Amino acid sequence: MTDDELATLHRYLTAWGDGDVMTVLGSYHERLELRWPGTHRLSGTHAGRDAAVTALAALQAATGRVLAEVRSITPADGFADVELVERWTIDGSTVDLPRRLRFGVEDGLIAWCEVVELEPDLVDRVLG
Question: Strands (DSSP E) along the chain, which ranges?
Answer without folding.
Answer: 28-36, 44-47, 66-76, 79-90, 93-106, 109-117
